[in-house]
Amino acid sequence: MINVEILRLSHRIHRDIRLSSHVALTCRAFNCSKMYYSGDKDASLENTLIGINKKFGSNFTIEHIKNPERLINDKKNDDYKIIHLTMYGISVKKKINVIKEEKRILIIIGSEHVPGVYYGLADYNISITSQPISELSALTIFLHEYFDGKELDIKFENAKVRIIPQEKGKKIINS
Amino acid sequence: MINVEILRLSHRIHRDIRLSSHVALTCRAFNCSKMYYSGDKDASLENTLIGINKKFGSNFTIEHIKNPERLINDKKNDDYKIIHLTMYGISVKKKINVIKEEKRILIIIGSEHVPGVYYGLADYNISITSQPISELSALTIFLHEYFDGKELDIKFENAKVRIIPQEKGKKIINS
Q: Taking CB atoms and an 8 Å limit, are A22 and B169 in contact across chains?
């Protein structure tokens, strides 16, 4: 049984609210089970996800943590592999087939500056291009590669509304 | 000769600075030639990209525009196809092979609310999941599919510094 969790480091309420909420929404839609985040505790971020779950389904959860290093060590003791996404790491193309063998993973994404300790704690430091992009773009590509694109077809059973794809305009139905 | 350009609608300086700059950085790294943006003109956003180009290479440009509908019509007259990314559109998996035949494309991404006129102007309204995610996640997956993952291997000839991928830590060299 695959379980993919995310650790978002150093969330800052005012500066990061939109980016962190987009990270969480992408994790939810792309088949991750949980996002942990450190930095500022943010009720608005958490409530956004609760509201989306209620409307569109999924059991995705979000949890604020104070000590990310301890979380990582706990996950390692629980046989998770730790993937740190960084522009300085090895190309995702070279490592994705090995990482796909791992069924329980914790993916770490930072904001601008990630302390060196996380490079050491990670089992894999992985880059999505060796260029400055975005932790959200990097995470999106990583998940797409890890799940072989199947994450694009997920349907959530407990959805109240569903969107029916249209050539033009919008179609939303109540489930 | 492939030319991919982006139109980012309705940028708001304080609210969107990080997200719009991450969009622009991703476009640059993923082989797009130009990003147009409407809404607030933002020198900080433009200077971020100029600085990244100087250091890491590429001729990616960014331009503020006042009238996005006129830009779209100009591009249509210039034989561009218009792709609008929206959770209400047809799945990227169903349309990507047709869209790959198009060599000059303008991709429109909005922020929370996109006026209906853009759905009508677009040649293709395309969804990356029928779930709320992020315009940046959607754009990232679209580009990855359009370029068949080759965008991850781009090297910029005019770079001053290059990152050498490492298992642990960081290695940066001057070109």
A: no
Q: How far is CA B61 from CA A88, B21, B40, B44, B168, in A?
A: 25, 13, 17, 14, 33
- Number of compact structural domains in chain B: 1
A52 has a chain B CB within 8 A of its CB:
yes
Average pLDDT along chain A: 96
Does the structure show a pLDDT above 80 at B112? no
The helix (run of H) or strand (run of E) holding residue B37 is strand B34-39
User: Chain A window 114-173: which residues touch B at a Cβ cutoff of 8 Å?
Assistant: 116, 119-120, 122, 125, 127-134, 136-137, 140-141, 144, 149, 151-154, 156, 162-171
CATH number of the domain that residue B137 is part of: 3.40.1280.10
Bridge-based pairing of strands A172-174 and A161-163 is antiparallel
Q: What is the pLDDT of residue A14?
A: 86
Q: Taking a C-beta distance cutoff of 8 angstroms, is the pair B19, A19 a contact?
A: yes
pLDDT at residue number B15 = 87
Q: Model confidence at A151, in pLDDT bands (50, 70, 90)?
A: very high
Is A79 in a helix, a strand, or coil? coil
Q: Which region holds residue A2: left if phi is over 0, alpha if psi is between -120 and 50, else beta?
A: beta
Q: What is the pLDDT of residues A95-112, one digit of tens each?
A: 999 999 999 999 999 987
Contact between chains at A132 and B25 (C-beta distance less than 8 A):
yes
- Residue A126 and residue A84: Cα distance in Å, rounded? 6
* Tokens at A85, concatenated: 């996404």
Q: Which residues of B touch A92 (CB under 8 A)?
A: 152
Q: How confident is the model at residue A28 (pLDDT cuts 50, 70, 90)?
A: very high
Contact B34, B9 (CB under 8 A): no
**Domain range enclosing A122:** 3-174
